[in-house]
Design goal:
Layout: E1 2-3, E2 10-11, H1 13-24, H2 30-34, H3 40-43, H4 46-61, H5 69-75
Antiparallel strand pairs: 1-2
Helix pairs in contact: 4-5
Length: about 80
């Protein structure tokens, strides 16, 4: 397990690589962009992360994901 240089959380580099490359759908490369130094949450561009948080809040409102009132209030 690696430690994120930004937030200090421990994370799996292969899992971060896969998630990053999947979310960016070929528009970025985790190894080139971050070289295994950042966790997924710190590596993902802010505009993508914000859109993902907004989508999760909508899913919570629709009952497709466990409801978290704080998350919904923050991102909707």
């Amino acid at each position: 397990m690696a430690s994120c240089l930004n937030c200090g959380d421990r994370f799996s580099v292969p899992a971060a690589r896969t998630a990053y490359n999947d979310v960016l759908d070929g528009e970025g490369d985790y190894d080139t962009d971050h070289g295994g130094d950042l966790c997924f949450d710190c590596a993902i561009p802010p505009e993508i992360g914000s859109a993902m948080d907004h989508g999760r809040a909508i899913m919570m409102m629709n009952g497709d994901e466990d409801y978290d009132e704080d998350h919904v209030e923050k991102y909707l």
